[in-house]
Design goal:
9 strands, 61% helix, 1267 residues, globular
């Protein structure tokens, strides 16, 4: 930004959004600027930076003196000086330095100076200091010069006021990063800044330690100042290109002591300073300081068992040598054994924290300090270093480090990962020791040992590890146990090794084990035979790992091995997945090497150069033809659900097959497909039905389906000469409506071709041919193929030439009607296609659309120009249709494209659309109105306010007509739209346009909103702004929860009144929202075992009602007594069950459905139970809200029932009988309803004979009712 632009902002009077104090200061600054400019005009001086600077300097002398400061004037003048100074000539700033500093000093030291005065003063000083030369910086701080000014900045950099402190630190950073021209790398003031910052930090650290000793368990009052001092040290270290070498030792000592502080922030700040110092030294200019720094840190080594200071010291050492490895990789590697031994000694510590820190440091050494040159071409000296490291690693497994075996294992894993293939043979002893530990049954660290052995396999190769730890599976000798547990480890970790090892070691082993299985014949399989079968599976599961960048592919993958794999693919169905993955990995791993850009990196490429990878691909391409023939045959014999891996393998070998062999393969497949289609066409209906029944039992698809899959897979690798055959096949199958699945596959061909450059060229060339094919087959399309047909059209749209835009109106009606498809994916594809066609027309704006070429249009139909309004006119044509389904689909389509293109449409078009939909809102057809409601919602939330406000006069009354309709959620939808209106236009505007009789709904929305706001505010005040489980607060909406601003606007409404549904989400291109959690969900568990959530029957144990414990037999039940002391059996629970027209409160709990009600019926406390002899037992336990004044035994209850004439059997029958409602003398009956499953037995109340009360029909405890 230029000086003039900055001054224009100061002159601007637009201050309405600023606070009063800010407005006042800005006004005074504007007045001062105007006065300065008037002075310059009077003096006929050019308003240049120099002119402004001189005038402001004169004003500053008037505002500031040695004894007093005019605070208001000084603030404005210094602010303007801060703006002007960076643009003033540097010679002027150097010559006027002492004068400016003398005038600024009183302002900086003024006792009542606040941030508005101090911050621009600091800015002025910054600009002045940056302009000074080396001669000025040589003046001592006792003289009026730059050093005195920097001393003032250092003092302000630890000020207790955050804004001033931050501004001063930024100024110091900028000054130190702009040194004057000189031979020295550092700024002349860097030493002074470092010394001052270090002294301040040391003094405060000493005071803090003394304070802690004097006041135990009291937080130090010096900690805030100490944190500020740390921040200053961090600023100086970051700005000066690394801390000055002479000050490194005292700084490290202070920082290490601070890093053991209990204050986490201070410890983190100390480590950040170390990080900044090391990062600065990673640069070549500062790297000379690094050895001295590492030497100093090593000399500050704490005592062996200092659990507070050792972990931070080890962390600093780790980071330091990480930087050293970047600057001097070879020298650092030579020091590694010595460092390794030093840090490894801490693993014997009794402190867990020290051991963990030491192991992390050793892991860092192995990850960062082993250069690539050691791995690729180690020298004699490098080999000696590696041997020393191996010796140290073996020592870690001795008894001395027994307490740290977990940490030692982590270090071993890092060594194998760091040394890669150089670990063989130097770490063989480590493998031997860990393998022996793993074989010990009493060893508890088997999981960790397995991981180390796996990393050893990955680094050294399986051949080397198996020579140390043989499997011993066939004939284990005494004292040499079998190691079948290594097979899963090998499967996970084998890669980048010799394929020959698999051929010589594992293929014979699998053959011998499989022979054992064959020898068993048809006899019942023993456990031993099952184990052999499992081992064969595990052995062949190793093949994909051996095929991942093998080192000897050309020598090992020969004809016999390929034939072996082919035979296994035919004969062993269970091994097909592993063999196909192995064959696929051979191709893809080598292609990945070829795709790496830039220079060769043998370590990154796992010892396989690009030249070798290309040779491997060429070698494999020689086997591609035969392998593809085998894979095609196997594919046709495999069930559809198991074909995925075979198709991926086919795809891999098609990509490397020679062109001529690929063409031959394609011709064979197409000829077989044509003959298969001819055979199916010649079949009678009875034969087709018989074949369908046979394929239904075997679940194998017809051969034509299989061959079509292969054609689609081959298509992207074909040359352009073959595309004519390909399109002929597609055109033949697309019009076959007798086989929907085959038709579906044919449509997939077009999107598949768009994946390759050659295919894209073919689609562009044959665009007219494909258009005609798609138009002619419109009537033949089957429902399952609809989605793929739409995808094919969507693929073709970008390739349409501007002369073929008539294809869009030709196909548009089909796309529009697809917006109402049953299949959700088809609907979503139709919406996306509408947008794609609109964007195509916008891109081709101005081109001609020849309507005479559109089907069912007259030959003399006029041509139109392509533009967005014309596209909307095309889609709107469906509104004139006679079928309500078509009209509804057209409205839905218009809704989608309106939302997408709303900002590009003309206002007249928008107004016309809204007016038309307002009329459709009065339609009697619910399907049409449902779509219109979606359109209205989009208008309310996205169209301009000035367009929508005039329409509310008719729109709101028309909406309110449907607020009384409960079907299809119309009432909820209307309420939701009204909420959006109120939120955007205000409640008064909506209320004015609402009919008088419907305004109660507006009032309800307003009150609900206010109530939710009160609840939210109350929750915030109580510290419950959000639930622990992350649920939304009542009435609130969560920011950042939605994918777009529109989704937040539409779907961020209150939970109670969200009228949006899934169809809205689809129309607007939004993914379906997850259902919100409504209420609590409970899991009902048996007492003896927890619920298995993986069990399919687990759903029956999940309920929305809280499960209650079953009543135990013999447990006392509760009964009630009336005022006379008589027992009342039945009571209110019966009344609740018998309510006809006055439902009780809390009906939401009783009105359950679905899983919750079912579980309550079969698992709840009132569930039917089976007692002895299989008899049904029914619970009569009352609810928690019933009286519990007296406990009686069940035996007493039975006796009382007999005396009152209400035996259980009679009551049970009466509950199912029919009786009269008159006078309440009858029982049961339709009015009472049948007793539901799990419902309590109904007994009449002795105090209520002879009639019901409050709209309730009561049962008499006497005999059956009369007819």
């Amino acid at each position: 930004m230029s000086l003039e632009e900055k001054l224009d902002k100061i002159r601007s009077p637009k201050l309405q959004s600023q606070q009063q104090a800010s407005r006042t200061s800005h006004y005074s600054t504007r007045v001062v600027l105007a006065a300065v400019e008037d002075t310059l005009r009077d003096q006929k001086t050019e308003p240049s930076p120099t002119g402004y600077f001189a005038a402001l300097l004169a004003l500053l002398r008037n505002a500031v003196s040695a004894t007093s400061v005019n605070k208001d004037l000084a603030t404005s003048v210094v602010y303007l000086l801060d703006v002007v100074t960076p643009y003033a000539p540097q010679p002027l700033l150097r010559s006027k330095f002492s004068q400016i500093l003398t005038n600024l000093a009183p302002a900086l030291t003024f006792a009542e100076a606040d941030a508005p005065l101090l911050r621009p003063s600091i800015g002025c000083l910054e600009s002045l200091l940056i302009a000074q030369d080396s001669a000025a910086w040589e003046l001592s701080h006792t003289q009026i010069g730059p050093r005195r000014a920097i001393a003032g900045l250092l003092n302000l950099a630890v000020d207790h006021r955050p804004k001033i402190r931050k501004k001063a630190q930024e100024a110091i950073t900028n000054v130190l990063k702009s040194p004057p021209p000189s031979p020295s790398l550092d700024h002349p003031a860097a030493d002074m800044c470092a010394e001052t910052a270090l002294k301040s930090l040391s003094d405060l650290a000493t005071l803090s330690n003394q304070s802690k000793k004097n006041k135990k368990n009291v937080s130090s009052e010096h900690e805030p100042a100490l944190i500020h001092a740390l921040q200053l040290v961090k600023t100086v270290a970051a700005a000066s290109g690394g801390w000055p070498s002479k000050k490194i030792e005292p700084l490290c000592e202070v920082l290490l002591h601070i890093s053991k502080s209990s204050n986490e922030y201070m410890a983190m700040a100390a480590f950040e300073i170390f990080e900044i110092i090391f990062a600065g030294m990673a640069e070549a200019t500062s790297s000379s300081k690094l050895p001295r720094l590492l030497e100093v840190i090593s000399e500050l080594r704490p005592s062996q068992n200092d659990s507070q200071l050792l972990p931070p010291w080890i962390a600093v050492i780790s980071r330091g040598y990480d930087v050293s490895a970047q600057v001097e990789p070879e020298e650092t590697f030579q020091k590694l054994p010595e460092l390794f031994d030093m840090i490894a000694s801490f693993l014997t510590s009794s402190s867990h924290n020290i051991r963990v820190s030491a192991s992390e440091c050793l892991i860092s050494f192995m990850a960062n300090c082993v250069p690539d040159s050691v791995l690729s071409e180690p020298s004699i000296y490098d080999e000696k270093v590696l041997e020393k490291l191996a010796k140290a690693a073996v020592d870690l497994l001795s008894v001395k480090y027994q307490a740290a075996w977990m940490e030692s294992f982590s270090v071993m894993g890092a060594m194998f990962d760091g040394l890669r293939w150089q670990a063989d043979p130097i770490l063989k002893d480590v493998v031997q020791t860990i393998g022996e530990l793993r074989g010990n049954d009493s060893f508890t660290g088997k999981k960790e040992a397995d991981e180390i052995i796996g990393k050893a396999i990955r680094a050294m190769g399986p051949q080397s590890v198996l020579s140390i730890l043989p499997l011993n599976l066939l004939k284990p000798k005494p004292g040499q146990p079998g190691r079948a547990w290594m097979l899963p480890i090998l499967r996970e970790y084998v890669s980048n090794t010799n394929l020959s090892n698999f051929k010589t070691e594992f293929v014979p082993l699998s053959e011998m084990m499989f022979q054992r299985v064959i020898d068993n014949g048809d006899a019942e399989k023993t456990m031993e035979i099952k184990i052999f079968e499992t081992l064969v599976q595990q052995i062949w599961a190793l093949l994909p790992g051996y095929c991942d960048l093998p080192l000897d592919l050309i020598g090992s993958f020969d004809q016999p091995f390929a034939e072996l794999l082919a035979n296994l693919l035919y004969q062993q169905v269970g091994l097909r997945s592993d063999i196909c993955r192995g064959l696929q990995t051979l191709v893809e791993s080598n292609k990945a090497i070829l795709s790496i850009e830039g220079e060769e990196d043998i370590v990154l490429q796992s010892r396989i150069s690009k030249v070798t990878a290309q040779k491997n691909i060429d070698h494999l391409s020689g086997f591609a033809s035969n392998l593809l023939a085998v894979l095609f045959n196997v594919y046709s014999e495999t069930l559809p659900q198991h074909r995925g891996h075979i198709l991926q393998c086919i795809n891999a070998y098609l990509s490397i097959a020679p062109n001529q062999e690929l063409m031959d393969t394609f011709e064979k497949v197409t000829s077989m497909l044509q003959s298969s289609l001819a055979e199916s066409g010649a079949q009678t209906q009875a034969e087709k039905q018989k074949q369908k029944e046979q394929s239904g039992t075997s679940k194998m698809p017809p051969m034509s389906h299989t061959l079509m899959d292969l054609v689609i897979t081959i298509s992207i690798y074909l040359s352009r000469e073959s595309f004519s055959t390909l399109f002929n096949i597609a055109s033949l199958i697309i019009i076959m409506d007798s086989d929907p699945q085959l038709q579906k596959k044919a449509y997939k061909l077009i999107p598949r071709l768009a994946e390759s450059p050659t295919g894209k060229e073919a689609l562009a060339e044959r665009s007219n041919e494909l258009q005609q094919l798609l138009l002619n087959s419109a009537e033949k399309v089957s429902a399952p193929a609809r989605k793929d047909r739409l995808l094919a059209i969507a693929t073709l749209i970008p390739f349409l030439p501007n002369t073929s835009l008539h294809f869009i109106p030709s196909i548009l009606s089909e796309v529009v009607i697809s917006c109402k498809e049953v299949n959700e994916k088809a609907r979503t594809t139709a919406f996306d296609l509408l947008i794609s066609m609109g964007e195509k027309i916008v891109a081709a704006e101005g081109s001609i659309i020849d309507n005479s070429k559109v089907p069912n249009m007259p030959d003399d139909a006029p041509t139109v120009s392509a533009n967005l309004e014309e596209y909307f006119t095309m889609v709107s044509a469906g509104l004139a249709g006679s079928a309500s389904h078509m009209v509804s689909a057209s409205i839905t389509a218009l809704t989608r494209i309106l939302y997408h293109f709303r900002q590009s449409l003309k206002v007249d078009t928008l107004a016309e659309l809204v007016e038309t939909m307002d009329l459709f809102l009065t339609h009697k057809n619910r399907e049409i109105v449902r779509s219109v409601l979606g359109f209205v919602k989009v208008c309310v939330i996205s169209l301009p306010t000035e367009l929508m406000l005039p329409r509310l006069k008719t729109l709101v009354p028309n909406l309110m007509v449907w607020s009384h309709e409960h079907k299809a959620h119309f009432k909820a939808k209307v309420k939701h739209i009204l909420e959006r209106m109120i939120r955007r236009f205000g409640v008064n505007v909506v209320n004015q346009n609402c009919p008088e009789e419907d305004r109660k709904l507006i009032t309800n929305i307003r009150k609900t909103k206010e109530r939710n706001k009160r609840h939210k505010d109350a929750a915030k005040e109580a510290g419950e702004g959000s639930d622990e489980d992350g649920a939304e607060p009542s009435g609130g909406k969560r920011k950042g929860h939605f994918e777009s601003e529109y989704d937040e606007a539409v779907y961020g409404s209150d939970d109670e009144s969200d009228g949006s549904d899934i169809s809205d989400n689809e129309v607007l291109g939004k993914k379906r929202k997850a259902a919100k959690k409504s209420g609590n969900t409970y899991i009902h568990e048996e007492e003896d075992e927890p619920l298995d959530l993986l069990d399919r029957r687990a759903l029956a144990n999940i309920s929305t009602t809280k499960p209650l414990k079953q009543r135990l037999p013999g447990k006392k039940t509760k009964a009630k007594m009336d005022l006379d002391g008589k027992l009342i059996l039945g009571g209110d629970s019966d009344d609740e069950a018998m309510i006809l027209d006055t439902p009780a409160d809390g009906g939401a709990e009783d009105d359950e459905g679905g899983v919750g009600a079912y579980v309550k019926a079969i698992k709840g406390r009132d569930a039917v139970q089976r007692g002895r002899g299989g008899r049904l037992k029914f619970s009569n336990k009352r609810g928690q809200d019933e009286d519990d004044e007296m406990d009686v035994d069940e035996a007493d209850v039975k006796a009382i029932r007999k005396t009152t004439g209400g035996d259980s059997r009679g009551s049970f029958r009466a509950g199912r009988g029919r009786g009269s409602q008159r006078g309440g003398s009858g029982r049961g009956g339709i009015a009472n309803g049948r007793r539901g499953l799990g419902e309590e037995k109904r007994h009449g109340s002795s105090g209520n004979r002879g009639g019901g009360r409050g709209g309730r029909v009561m049962k008499s405890p006497r005999g059956r009712g009369r007819r």
